[in-house]
């Protein structure tokens, strides 16, 4: 009986206080308040639902145009999003249309970002950035942790392009991962139960990159690309090494990585930078309000 009364009260409260919106203009009072924050977190209860993508795109456009937000960070891999970012900023001639740039999402779940709703937003962002100076172009970045192999490939490619003294260490670390054929569970089982992992090779590379960081300061976007791929590789190795034995610990590694990634991207854009974050509600909500906390899980926002 109490549950029915509670449900009735909630229904009445919704009828009394909820406000229906039809266009983005109806959200302006709420968006004006949100625009004062350093980060605006735009969630979704399901991945791939058209309405979420379309509304987030319209909200993001409004925040960018009216309040100068610096970047959009999404629940996607850094390497794939970096290609889209370069397209949006006019830094590459490899793609003639947003749909071409989005083909860089080749690994599951590619439909999360390579979809029709994203095409419109990415082309809008490229047009918006066209007349902007480099320092004011709005970025599009991936902050997820899954891109171990792709990020290793990017590190090797970048170090080769500048003839870096770290290339041998990078290739050694990459060759250690190659036998697992991009099978993350295979690497997790090997490291957890057989003590065969690539931790030492990876740490040697990351330490060397840190010691030689003065060599990687010529081009701003290139610096960020190297730092973010190194961060992804470090945390992805921890994630895959942990996922076989602990769901909650691997979840926390992933969400903590997202926070680190956002911090790194923010530093790139400067102290006044403001970001828009697109993620599932389980990442940007407060775990203390759910049973996730009982399972030992955190979320990026909490």
Task: Explain the layout of strands and helices.
Layout (H helix, E strand, L loop, with lengths): L1 H16 L10 H7 L4 E4 L7 H18 L3 E4 L3 H11 L9 H4 L14 H14 L9 E4 L5 H14 L5 H11 L6 H10 L5 H13 L8 H24 L3 H23 L5 E4 L2 H4 L18
Parallel strand pairs: 1-4, 2-3, 2-4
Question: Would you kindly provide a written description of the structure presented here, covering whatever features stand out?
Answer:
- It is a single chain.
- With 302 residues, the chain is mostly helical.
- It has 2 domains: 39-129 and 137-142 and 273-302, no CATH class; 144-270.
- The protein is built from 13 helices and 4 strands.
- Strands 1-4-2-3 form a 4-stranded parallel sheet, with helices on both faces.
- The longest helix has 24 residues, at 220-243.
- The radius of gyration is 21 Å and the shape is globular.
């Amino acid at each position: 009986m109490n549950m029915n009364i509670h449900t009735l009260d909630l229904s009445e409260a919704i009828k009394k206080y909820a406000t229906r919106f039809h266009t983005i203009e109806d959200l302006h009072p709420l968006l004006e308040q949100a625009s004062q924050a350093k980060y605006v977190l735009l969630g979704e209860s399901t991945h791939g639902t058209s309405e979420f993508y379309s509304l987030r795109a319209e909200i993001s456009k409004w925040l960018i145009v009216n309040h100068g937000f610096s970047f959009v960070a999404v629940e996607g891999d850094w390497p794939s999003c970096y290609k889209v970012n370069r397209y949006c900023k006019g830094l590459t001639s490899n793609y003639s249309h947003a749909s071409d740039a989005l083909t860089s999402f080749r690994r599951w779940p590619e439909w999360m970002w390579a979809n029709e709703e994203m095409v419109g937003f990415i082309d809008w962002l490229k047009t918006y950035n066209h007349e902007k100076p480099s320092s004011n172009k709005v970025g599009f970045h991936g902050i997820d942790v899954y891109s171990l192999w792709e990020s290793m490939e990017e590190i090797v490619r970048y170090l080769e392009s500048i003839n870096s003294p770290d290339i041998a260490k990078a290739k050694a670390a990459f060759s250690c991962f190659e036998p697992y054929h991009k099978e993350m569970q295979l690497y997790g089982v090997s490291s957890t139960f057989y003590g065969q992992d690539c931790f030492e090779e990876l740490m040697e590379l990351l330490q060397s990159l840190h010691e030689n960081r003065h060599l990687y300061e010529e081009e701003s976007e290139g610096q960020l690309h190297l730092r973010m791929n190194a961060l992804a590789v470090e945390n992805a190795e921890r994630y895959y090494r942990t996922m076989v034995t602990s769901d909650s610990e691997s979840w926390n590694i992933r969400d903590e990585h997202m926070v680190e990634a956002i911090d790194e991207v923010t530093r790139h854009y400067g102290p006044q930078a403001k970001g828009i974050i697109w993620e599932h509600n389980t990442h940007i909500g407060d775990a203390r309000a759910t049973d996730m906390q009982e399972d030992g899980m955190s979320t990026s926002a909490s």
